[in-house]
Amino acid sequence: MRILVVEDSQVVAKILRHLLQQELDCIVDIAPDLTTARTFLEQEQYFVAIADLSLPDANGGQIVEVVQQYQVPCIVATATLDSAQRKRLLSLGIVDYVFKENRFSYEYIVKLVKRLHRNQKIKVLVADDSSVSRNYIRALLEQHLFQVMEAKDGAEALALLQSSAGIKLLITDYNMPTMDGFELIIKARELYLREELAIIGLSNDTDESLSARFIKNGANDFLQKPFVHEEFHCRVLNTLDALEMLRLFWKQANYDYLTQVYNRRYFFDYFSQQMPKISKKKTQLAVGLIDIDFFKKVNDNYGHDVGDEVLIEFSARLRKIFADKFIVARIGGEEFVVALKGLKLAQAHQLFDDFREKLAAQPIVTSKGDLKVTISIGLHCRNADESIDEMIKIADQSLYRAKEQGRNLVCVSGLQI
Fold first, then answer.
1. 361 and 270: one domain?
2. What is the pTM of this model?
3. In 3D, which of 389, 354, 359 has the Cα closest to residue 291?
4. Closest residue by Cα to residue 184 from 206, 138, 151
5. Contact call for residues 414 and 398 (beta carbons, < 8 A)
6. What is the DSSP letter of 58?
7. In sequence order, what E strands does 21-87 have?
């Protein structure tokens, strides 16, 4: 990533370069005037430009138009800005403006650049029956490099939420035909939890209770139309920051820190909630309890650091094969579980046995050399109305038999296949 800083103050330029390179993997070019900036823009492709309005050879803010001629997003850093200048800059479509007041101002700029970098991967769905309103919101969002999708009413928006993966933010108007904003939010919350999807409600209605009703129905925030650029961007960025923080907390609570698969608590909580649905739909469910053979010897002979390397690589291979479709969790030191929904016993067994064979054939590379690793697996398919705890106990009995019979085996519910 390459960033252009257009700033005639050497002190300010050095501060920005230091902070940007400290926080981001980037190259920072510094132009002290408009002429140098134009030369840089002709020679390099920039992710963003951070530009002062008053330069030795252009003190009227001409740098903004020049930067945008090269289709580079522009953040304005300025010491002063009157109302007329502000309106002009916003009409030009700058990302944001920041007053150069203290270190916190420069840290805000760095935070904004990091946000822009993340925004490139974030899908935002805008639901509004007014094409004028949708186009306006789309333009604001694209200034911040979001991927934008549109829906003309709640029903179309709901269909997109169901069919398009990766939407992180829904911005919805209240008054829409077919399905209004409230109904859309209620249905959206049936599909996505708060740590998965953020929602901002919009309305030009004068009803004072709307904001509370939006939030009580599941929205994260509410914005009254008409709104100004800065308020819109601040609400969107704060909402996404909160979503990412919530997602981080959720991940810390539900993922194993070392192996990056789900932890024991998540696994049992998830299936305790899912079992009634599985029973109702009579869905096939198999669990494979996996133990790394003689793992204690790895720790004893090579140290716990190497043991961790083995666990990390083993779980990476486990995720690669299973995690896209199935639930993978670490439930003990070297013990893992994979739950396979929708597979019959023979299919589940074949999948586990293929994984076991490939693991044994490909040693794990560690800092102390290559180590051959094998696993034993106890497999059980659900009968009648067994709970997840009961399934794990039966799988554990099969795992014990696999170890008794020489390890590097898959044993199934009292039978060895």
1. yes
2. 0.78
3. 359
4. 151
5. yes
6. B
7. 27-31, 48-52, 74-78
Residue 246 tokens, joined: 């919530």
Give the domain extent around 352: 262-416
Distance CA 187, CA 182 (A): 9
Number of alpha carbons in the 13 Å side-chain half-sphere of residue 143: 24
Q: How far is CA 28 from the centre of its chain?
A: 27
The helix-helix angle for 304-318 and 295-302 (nearest 10°) equals 140
Q: Are residues 25 and 140 in the same domain?
A: no
DSSP string, 234-292: HHHHHHHHHHHHHHHHHHHHHB-TTT-SEEHHHHHHHHHHHHHHHHHHT--EEEEEEEE
Q: At 410, list the tokens.
A: 């898959």
Q: Which residue bears the tokens 């490099």?
A: 145
* Residue 326 CB coordination number (10 Å): 18
Are 74 and 174 part of one and the same domain?
no
pLDDT tens digit at each of 417 positions of the chain: 999 999 999 999 999 999 999 999 899 999 999 999 999 999 999 999 999 999 999 988 899 999 999 999 999 998 888 888 888 888 888 999 998 878 889 999 999 999 999 999 999 999 999 999 999 999 999 999 999 999 999 999 999 999 998 999 999 999 899 899 999 999 999 999 888 999 999 998 877 788 898 999 899 999 999 888 888 999 999 999 999 999 999 999 999 999 999 999 999 999 999 999 898 888 999 999 999 999 999 999 999 999 999 999 999 999 999 988 899 999 999 999 999 999 988 999 999 999 999 999 999 999 999 999 999 999 999 987 899 999 999 999 999 999 999 999 999 985 545
CA 231 – CA 222 distance, rounded (Å) = 11
Distance in angstroms (rounded) separating the CA atoms of residues 353 and 116: 45
Domain tally, the chain: 3
